[in-house]
Design goal:
2 domains; about 280 residues; four-stranded antiparallel sheet
Length: about 280
């Protein structure tokens, strides 16, 4: 039953590790994008006044050092943003939609968003500048919480796997106690006996880990396919870097090594206690 138990543990470890790494990569990308962007929102009932303030803000932004680009969203862009929430065709012309300006700032220049916000308010009293700092703080906190939960899950799975191997090794050693005693009498050393157990449990560990790993990959592929069917903009793309992919692919070998070392130490301790 040991390969089956290790397969289950490996499967859970694959899902936990992949989830944690994917969350880290996605939030890192979001944080980078948000750190280099800001948004100006202009709310006014009168359309002409709203457009006047928008033009004034755009003129100020184009003159401000450190701003790479500043673009006002068109009515079609704003309607496209609202339709997922209000439904297609439900955005009427009389709906008071605020003007939005997307700003991209340079990553090489230290930017003072408070000073820019004060300058914008002077020329456009109905405008507000959002530098996404509050959203970024919440995003980072959520990301770290999810990453910590995934790391804790992987650690607990590793500990549970080691405990399973300890019990399996002790049970196998007890079942072959008479044979081990005879080999001892024939002059076999503890290291020689431990090597045989080490090799055996390494093979069992790798078999179980390989099975669990393959099932985990199939599950991740299925989840990724279902997420892509929902649309590219609805869920972020879950992708791993090259180093992370290598780490994931090495998981069966790492679990096999864990099983080998655990069996090795368990046999040596059991034999030492019987002498």
């Amino acid at each position: 039953m040991l390969p089956g138990l290790i397969a289950v543990m490996t499967y859970l470890a694959v899902l936990s590790a992949a989830s944690g790494l994917a969350v880290y990569n996605v939030t890192q990308g979001w944080s980078t994008d948000l750190a280099q962007s800001m948004t100006v929102q202009i709310v006014h009932q009168d359309r002409d006044e709203r457009e006047r303030q928008t033009e004034a803000v755009l003129e100020l932004l184009h003159r401000t050092p450190g701003i790479v680009s500043a673009e006002s969203l068109t009515d079609n862009d704003l309607i496209a943003l609202l339709e997922p929430w209000l439904g297609s065709g439900n955005v009427s012309d009389d709906l008071p939609i605020p003007a939005l300006i997307n700003i991209t700032i340079s990553s090489e220049i230290r930017f003072d968003s408070r000073a820019l916000g004060a300058s914008i308010i002077q020329i456009a009293p109905n405008a507000t500048l959002d530098d996404h700092q509050q959203w970024m703080g919440r995003l980072v906190s959520l990301s770290k919480a999810l990453e910590s939960a995934a790391a804790t899950a992987v650690l607990l799975i590793v500990m549970a796997t080691a405990i399973i191997v300890v019990f399996a090794t002790s049970a196998r050693l007890a079942a072959h106690r008479e044979t081990v005693d005879i080999i001892h009498l024939m002059g076999a050393e503890d290291l020689m006996i431990a090597r045989e157990f080490r090799h055996h449990f390494m093979i069992l560990g790798f078999k179980g880990a390989a099975i669990g790993f393959l099932i985990g990959l199939v599950t991740l592929y299925a989840i990724s396919s279902l997420a892509s069917d929902l649309g590219a903009g609805f869920l972020p793309r879950l992708a791993l870097t090259g180093t992370q992919t290598i780490l994931m692919l090495s998981m069966p070998f790492l679990i096999a090594v864990l099983a080998m070392l655990t069996a090795w130490v368990t046999v040596l301790r059991n034999l030492a206690q019987t002498i």
